[in-house]
Amino acid sequence: MKTIEEEFFEEQSDESEVKSRIVEKYFDAWSRILLPTVKKQNRTLAYVDLYAGPGRYRDGSASTPLLVLQRAIENSDLCERLETVFNDINEDNSATLQREINGLVGISKLKYAPLVFGSEADAQAKSFFARPQGPPTFSFIDPWGYKTLSKELIAACTRDWGSDCVFFFNYRRINAAFANPLFASHVDALFGARRAAALRPKLEGLRPHEREFLILEELAQTLKESGSQYVLPFTFKSNAGSRTTHCLIFVSKGEKGFKIMKEIMAKESSTTDQGVPCFCYSPADERAPLLFSFSRPLEALEGLLLEAFAGQTIAVKDIIKRHHVGYRYIERNYKQSLLQLEARKAVSATPEKRRPGTMGDDVLVRFPMVKQ
User: Does residue 372 form part of some domain?
Assistant: First the structure.
């Protein structure tokens, strides 16, 4: 009988393809932003994958480690500056991954040969992140479930300047684990014992979507308390689209990285509502698309902006920067809402004369005082 891991690597699913694309795209954007700085400082960048797998699915599709390495091979600066660490406790997986890496065309261009280990993820992470003033690192944590995830591990991955983390976990299992004392220690490791204990009674009797909101909100607060201010979840739904099965969570200390990942996840979302992305992937959405919007999220954004910036005159780019954290709105949603507010004279903008339908980053928007 095949293990879950063996079945997973039989063929790349749509969900795993979306996950890999998100990680690969962010690695590309992240490395391009940081490369000029690390070149000036004569430093390196690092990519760490603590549950790397064998490198390919059995249908031949490349998984995340090979996709990242291919990106590096194609960039001469990355060839000189990138350290990579790949780990998988399954020795067969790590041995297969090493062979796949060795077979990549151009792999010898990399100044730092990829390091492949077959050990416990915690041990490997402690070894790598224990280095004083380590390089800016992008870490990907994709365990078979959630048992080895901890808030300390995620905090270690985001400790140093420029370091961001993405982790993938089985939401369905952790949702059930809150009610099972046998798994209390694993839940406590991720949420903290005190927060987990307070959360358990709150979850009792809640409907599935209410439980999901509360669990993800508490997880975000846990990570923020550990020092990572910016947390962004992307959810994966069941085939029927009715339940969340897995979550991909982005964690960072920098607003710029958060904004970039938000745009990436927005493009991978399976639906939008008035142009506002759902930040989820659901196979059911393609089979049964919504015919129209019920929530009207852009109208809600207009009201939020009028309240948040009442009496202020502020540049568009600063409106977005100060407001978008904690909301699923992206840059184009803000600009569209501001244009609509301007069109009905709810706000004024300077300069008034500009190309029709545009709301540039430096346009100044004057918000009226809130009427008492």
Answer: no
